[in-house]
Specification:
12 helices, H-NS DNA Binding Protein, about 325 residues, eight-stranded parallel barrel, TIM Barrel, two-stranded parallel ribbon, alpha/beta
């Protein structure tokens, strides 16, 4: 049985940005090495602790792109994604990763769809061999329990102990299909940090629109690291939005580490590269985030903007927009 003292000590919450890896799982998105490097440098200027740059083991081209990005890093730690596969660990080393993010799932869905006709002991052995290879190559290891939010606690505890004994420095719990809500996220994180003293990372998908709320809860409950992406881009409905979370941490938790005035630059870079356009109502970056149209609201805002703004637009590099002219009434629905 693993004791709490067998793990690394937790530190204050860090942000790992996964735009360059998770973002490529958004439909129609693929980054060139040049675009990845530009976004990496913007993330470094935004004081991001670690950047996940890709999955080098899936092709020679991806390995080359990851290598070029890693070599361009100025200050941040570089993490690369890998399955529990020795060849993929070696690809991450060749690509100059600081960290390798090894992942596997152990719930019933994994044995039904990914490790068909294999038992949990087989998965455990794959994980141990992969982590051993990473340690031999002097890579820091994050082990991710994929679909942790649909994995029973006994299996989470079992595979965490195996990964830590094998040499993982950090455990990531992935809410792979975004089913957590704040209460269940709090319970999961609290149970983990009360059981283990290692770093805990949370990877939170947004299928119910709760990724940002869950990230804030995870931080408050003791998570060491939270994954984000610029504009929340990623598979299906994406993950925790870096830009929203940074503003919330500044306004609600007194975090002053992020230069929030750079937010438009980050958002614009991702929009240009991906073609993704956030809707007008999106917090922080949406066209209407600081737009006032109601006559009553406009009068109040002109006297004191705090009357109808949660925070000033200048904080995030935006400007206030007043629209006093109401549009004409039009029939939009033809029955």
């Amino acid at each position: 049985m693993l004791n709490k003292t067998d793990c690394s000590n937790k530190s204050s919450t860090k942000i790992l940005d996964a735009t360059l890896r998770e973002g490529e799982q958004q439909a129609g998105v693929r980054f060139s090495s040049q675009d990845k490097i530009k976004i990496l440098h913007l993330l470094e200027e935004f004081h991001i602790d670690c950047v996940e740059v890709g999955h080098p083991g899936i092709s020679a081209e991806d390995e080359q792109i990851c290598l070029e990005v890693a070599q361009a890093a100025r200050s941040t730690q570089i993490l690369m994604h890998a399955r529990a596969n020795v060849e993929e660990i070696q690809a991450a080393k060749r690509a100059k990763a600081d960290w390798v993010g090894i992942w596997a799932s152990v719930n019933h869905l994994a044995t039904e769809t990914k490790f068909v006709n294999r038992n949990k002991e087989y998965i455990s052995q794959k994980i141990q061999v992969a982590i051993a290879e990473a340690k031999k190559l002097d890579l820091k290891v994050r082990f991710t329990i994929e679909d942790a939010s649909r994995t029973v606690w006994d299996d989470i505890k079992w595979i965490t102990e195996i990964a830590l004994i094998a040499g993982a420095k950090r455990i990531s719990l992935a809410d792979t299909v975004g089913i957590l809500e704040p209460s269940t996220c709090d319970a999961l994180v609290s149970k983990f940090v009360n059981t283990f003293s290692c770093e805990l990372e949370m990877h939170l998908h947004n299928d119910f629109g709760l990724a940002v709320a869950n990230a804030l809860v995870a931080i408050d409950a003791g998570a060491s690291v939270v994954d984000t992406s610029i504009l929340g881009i990623g598979e299906r409905t994406g993950i925790t939005d870096l830009l929203q979370l940074a503003v919330i941490l500044h306004q609600k938790r007194g975090e002053n580490r992020f230069p929030l005035e750079q937010i438009p630059k980050l958002a614009c870079a991702v929009q240009l590269v991906t073609g993704y356009q956030p809707d007008e109502l999106r917090p922080v970056v949406g066209k209407n985030a600081f737009t006032h149209t109601s006559k009553y609201h406009v009068q109040a805002v002109e006297r004191n903007p705090n009357s109808y703004e949660a925070y000033p637009p200048e904080l995030v590099g935006r400007v206030r927009r007043i629209e006093k002219q109401r549009p004409p009434v039009q029939i939009g629905i033809q029955l």
